[in-house]
Structure formats: C-alpha cells, structure tokens
Amino acid sequence: MAVVDSQNKVQNDIDIDGKLTIMTLGSHCSLQVLKGAKDEGFETLLVCDEKRVDMYKRFKFIDHLISVKSFNEITNADFQTDLITRFNPILIPHGTLISTLDMAALENIKIPIFGNKWILRWESDRVLKQQLMNESDMHSPIQLESKHEIDGLCIVKLHGAAGGKGYFLVTNRKEFEDQARLLIESKTIRSEEDLFIQKYANGVPVYLQYFYSPINNELELLGIDRRYETDIDAIGRIPSKYQLSATIEPSYTVVGNIPIVLRESLLPEVYSMGERFVNASRKLVPPGIPGPFCIEGVYDNNANFTAFEFSARIVAGTNLYISGSPYSDLLYDVPMSMGRRIALEINKAKDLSKIELVTT
Ligand code: AMP
C-alpha cells in the first residue's frame, strides 16, 4: 500500500516482510555496494549496460544481472513494476544515477530508493546546493552573480554530478567568455547561464565521507579521500623550466581517488560540520539525510576548511575502503565499507519495522 510522508509525497510500495534485494546501477561504486549487501546477507541485483555484462559477471556476489541498452530504461514504469514484483528491491542511488536521469524522472521512480531522493535535486542544482550549505553554516567560496564580477582566480562549473568534467579556471571576463563559447560550440552547455562561477579556494583537497543513521540517531565518519584529477594533478609533474603549465588549460576530470587520514586535531570540526549538515538537511529537505553523504573542500595554510561541494549520497571515493578504513575500523569490528554500512542500516530498519526512516 502507498504511504504518504510528511511532505505529502507518495512513498513507494515495499513488502517489508518479504525478502529484500539490494539493487543498483552497474557503474560508480556498484561493486562495493553489492559486495557489502552480500556480506550483510542480502540478494543482489545489478542493472547494467549490455556492454559491461561480461565484466560484472566476474563477481559472484552479484545474484541477478539485468542488461539494458541505456540506464534510462529504469524510468520505464513497466520495467520498474517487473523488478518490484520479481525482486522486492531497494535501489541504492549513486553518482551515475544522478548524472544519467533528470531529477523529475528520478523522483518518480517507484522502486524504493535508499536515503532521501528529494535531496538529490539539491545536490544537482547549484543554487539549492548553496542554500543548504549556507544553512549548514559551512565556510564556502564566494559565488559570483555574473561574469562581470570576475576579478581574480575563479573556477567555473557545470550543473550536476559530472566528476569535475568541463570545469575551467578564469581570471577575467574575457577568459570566461572564450571558454564558455567553446562549451556552447561543442553543445556541452546551451548558454553561459548554465555555468556557475565560484572564487577559487586555495588549499589541499579533502573529501569527508559520512554516514548518518536515523535508526541510531548517530553520525559516523567512515573515510576520507582526495580525488586524482586530470590534468590538474598532472601539471605538477612537469618541471617549471619547460613552462608547459602556462599553456595547458587545467581540467578537473576525476580518474581515481587517494586515501587520506587527517590530523586528529581536525576531527572535532569535521564532526561538527557533519552534524550541522544533518540538521540543515532535516530542516530544508525532510526527512533529511539518512545514509551516506560527503562534504568536499580544501584546507588552507591555517588548516581552516572551505567546503565547495557536497554529495547527498554515496561517493566513489568510498571504493577505497572495501575492507574498511582507518575511521570505520575505530567503530566496527568487521571491515565496514560504505556499501556494507548501507546494507547494515537496511537490515536494522527492517528488523525494527522502520524501513520508512531509510527509504523514500
Ligand atoms: P567538484 O566536482 O565540485 O567536487 O569539484 C571537482 C574538483 O574541482 C575538486 O576536486 C577540486 O579540485 C576542484 N574545485 C572545485 N571547486 C573548487 C573551488 N571553489 N576552489 C578550488 N578548487 C575547486
């Protein structure tokens, strides 16, 4: 039976007494998510591009593999009904789901989604994103209202979760217009309005991987990473005497992740920032942020943190910690990946008949 939640939005059918299947799309962090689900005793289901079936078949913890020509097939109502009837699934959202589907299509998916699917719109829309970061009292870079305000180093971003793809640096209006024209010509964007200009925050990048449990009412820090980005991380490999760095236009496309542990003295503010984010999301986007999220930013030379982004779901940087991280090891006696932590929460919610606290 459909349930209406506090926002008057219809929640999806789920048979909580039946056997649940953990489902995700074959990309991003799907291996980690399904391995974690299997470790917690769930059946697993992967919806995957037909070209990747052979690769995913190598992993025995994937019980069911459904191949599609395009991930957009998941928006088809008959396809969803079939999956619901056969598997009683909970869908774990990740970056690929967000970058593939438009938000209305994602919100209309009938399969129960782990976490708060309404907050994913706040991640994708930069204006909403900034509102949530302000409400969380995060120190974040100044957002420029227009290209006429560009004065000094700025980073220009596209909307959505594209892993830093298409970002560029500018120091004045002309550089902005030149780069924007290239993106319009390549049909990456429709107009300059699709771009978002932020002051460049100087420092070393750090990505904080959290999990908030509405069942325990507790915030956990489960891992920390930084991204390995081409070709901004390649430029430092060219000795300055070759002066190539002046001619290479840096890009920020993520190709991998590198583990980090922070100085312990920085952790109190890390937890406090995470708590503020949990409270702000509960206030602005009920039911808040059940499950994983990530706050992304840089530490400057005074070890002060500037947050330039958040992800309101599992991030691919958690793939580093399939066998647990230095932080999850302090909390759990078994290797606790983010994928496994999600499955553990679903198990607890099911046992307590509180599945509505962790799905939308
Ligand atoms: P994002 O997709 O927003 O996490 O950003 C991708 C990459 O762009 C980050 O990992 C940083 O290297 C860089 N970046 C994003 N925003 C800023 C900023 N305001 N200042 C400096 N670097 C940034």
From TrEMBL:
One Pfam family linked to the record: DUF1246
Similarity field: Belongs to the phosphohexose mutase family.
EC class name: ligase
Cofactor(s) listed: Mn(2+); Mg(2+)
ATP-grasp domain sequence ranges: 117-336
Organism classification: Archaea, Nitrososphaerota, Nitrososphaeria, Nitrososphaerales, Nitrososphaeraceae
Keywords from the named record: ATP-binding, Ligase, Magnesium, Manganese, Metal-binding, Nucleotide-binding, Purine biosynthesis
Listed name of the protein: 5-formaminoimidazole-4-carboxamide-1-(beta)-D-ribofuranosyl 5'-monophosphate synthetase
Pathway: Purine metabolism; IMP biosynthesis via de novo pathway; 5-formamido-1-(5-phospho-D-ribosyl)imidazole-4-carboxamide from 5-amino-1-(5-phospho-D-ribosyl)imidazole-4-carboxamide (formate route): step 1/1
Catalysed reactions, semicolon-separated: 5-amino-1-(5-phospho-beta-D-ribosyl)imidazole-4-carboxamide + formate + ATP = 5-formamido-1-(5-phospho-D-ribosyl)imidazole-4-carboxamide + ADP + phosphate
Source organism (scientific name): Candidatus Nitrosocosmicus franklandianus
Coiled-coil residue windows: none
List of residues binding ATP: 229
InterPro entries linked to this entry: ATP-grasp, ATP_grasp_subdomain_1, IMP_biosynth_PurP, IMP_biosynth_PurP_C, IMP_biosynth_PurP_N, PreATP-grasp_dom_sf
Positions that bind 5-amino-1-(5-phospho-beta-D-ribosyl)imidazole-4-carboxamide: 28, 96, 257
GO MF term (any one): ATP binding
Protein purpose: Catalyzes the ATP- and formate-dependent formylation of 5-aminoimidazole-4-carboxamide-1-beta-d-ribofuranosyl 5'-monophosphate (AICAR) to 5-formaminoimidazole-4-carboxamide-1-beta-d-ribofuranosyl 5'-monophosphate (FAICAR) in the absence of folates.
The EC number(s) this enzyme carries: 6.3.4.23
BP term (GO), one: 'de novo' IMP biosynthetic process
